[in-house]
Write a structure and sequence with these properties.
This protein is 43% helix and 14% strand. The chain has 15 helices and 10 strands. The strands form 3 sheets. It has a 5-stranded parallel sheet with strand order 2-3-6-1-7, sandwiched between helices. Strands 8-9-10 form a 3-stranded mixed sheet. The N and C termini lie far apart (84 Å).
Length: 380
């Protein structure tokens, strides 16, 4: 006797609730979306944010046409974007602001290093849709209006890569190839099955999600890709017989041109299957943040958050200009971008919080000064 396994659940008809959710999203032009980014504290990356604002606008137009006008998406209009740039340059922060804050559609940000080939320890790529399903309150139709962002995408480069990660002289393990193949279907298929319970049990049938409106964004630093592209352009051999790359390679944004980014051969040598890179119809390059932009982020985002916290404890936080310059210079030296700003300030402010939070005796000012090359705090 043969056993017939039930197939995946059919695609559900969009409910009135989903239509209402889509209709409630404010329709903004790309320029207005860009202005909202500034209001939410995003700084720098003028070219990248323009491209991303258009991406968000197109995403909104697709779901409105489908759910409000009843028009299926036109073939070839689905967006798969690759964001390339150094750490701390604002790639994932831009995705969060655009889709979680401004459009407020279901959005999933996942680290590529969490995934492995089916059958091995680690998450299967289909669970990306499971996460989107959870973010949409278990409504598959509303989830289909969402966005999936995979960070650290460059870590999926396989051990077959001839390129070397700048400064590390190493490559990714073999599991990356299986994950890349698993992503192929998600980036091009009209629909895909996913486990509603993340595969924890075998009692639930797989569900099906419509992918015609899904936007997929991959983010990565891609250290050494610029050198790989340069070498291919000059006809250099990569691998044995090649001179070692310098220990401190230049950032990708300053080395890789748009023409080089479109060379799938460079990505193949880096460790990606050409079919996967070919699924991305837009490559967006992020530049390293300069001192002026980092200083603006420090003042408008990082320090204001700390100032509000200290005000709630009856303290005024004052940071001298020399300290701000010191924090920015350290972030530039360490090449940690905006993330490095908070990293430098956090230990010092935590010590001050340990000493003075919760006392609420009298209003006082905690001043950060730079003495003998080190940041010091004093209560006035």
């Amino acid at each position: 006797m043969s056993i017939v396994h039930p197939g995946p659940e059919p695609l559900p008809d969009p409910s009135d609730d989903v239509r209402a959710r889509v209709a409630a999203i404010e329709v903004l032009s790309p320029r207005e979306i860009d202005e909202r980014l500034t209001g939410l504290g995003y700084r720098g990356q003028a070219e990248a944010r323009r491209a991303a604002s258009v991406l968000a606008y197109r995403h909104l137009r697709r779901i409105r046409r489908l759910y409000l006008e009843g028009l299926p998406p036109e073939p070839g209009t689905r967006e798969n974007c690759l964001f390339l740039g150094p750490t701390g340059s604002g790639k994932t922060f831009l995705v969060e602001l655009l889709f979680r804050e401004i459009l407020a559609v279901p959005t999933v940000l996942a680290d590529a290093t969490q995934f492995s080939e089916t059958g091995y320890v680690g998450d299967d790529v289909s669970t990306l849709l499971s996460r989107l399903y959870e973010a949409a309150d278990q409504d598959a139709s509303w989830a289909a209006c969402g966005v999936v962002c995979m960070d650290e995408f460059d870590k999926l480069a396989t051990s077959r890569s001839d390129s070397r990660f700048a400064g590390q002289q190493t490559t990714k393990d073999v599991s990356g190839f299986g994950v890349q193949r698993g992503l192929l279907h998600m980036l091009s298929a009209p629909s895909a099955d996913f486990p509603p319970d993340f595969g924890f049990t075998s009692r639930l049938r797989p569900a099906t999600m419509d992918l015609s409106c899904l936007t997929f964004i991959a983010c990565g630093a891609f250290s050494g890709l610029g050198a790989t592209a340069d070498g291919l352009a000059r006809g250099e051999h990569l691998g044995f017989g090649r001179e070692p790359l310098p220990a401190r390679a230049e950032s990708i944004a300053s080395r890789v041109t748009e023409e080089q980014l479109e060379q799938t051969t460079a990505f193949a040598r880096y460790g990606f299957i050409p079919e996967l890179i070919g699924r991305f119809n837009r490559l967006v390059s992020f530049a390293p943040l300069d001192a002026a932009t980092l200083g603006d982020i420090l003042q408008q985002n990082v320090l204001r958050a700390y100032e509000r916290e200290f005000e709630q404890e009856g303290l005024r936080l004052r940071v001298e200009p020399q300290v701000r310059d010191f924090v920015v210079a350290r972030a530039l030296k360490r090449e940690t971008g905006a993330r490095g700003l908070r990293t430098t300030l956090a230990p010092l402010l935590e010590r001050a919080a340990y000493e003075h939070f919760g006392q609420r005796d009298t209003a006082a000012t905690l001043r950060l000064t730079l003495q003998a090359g080190e940041v010091q705090a004093r209560l006035e």
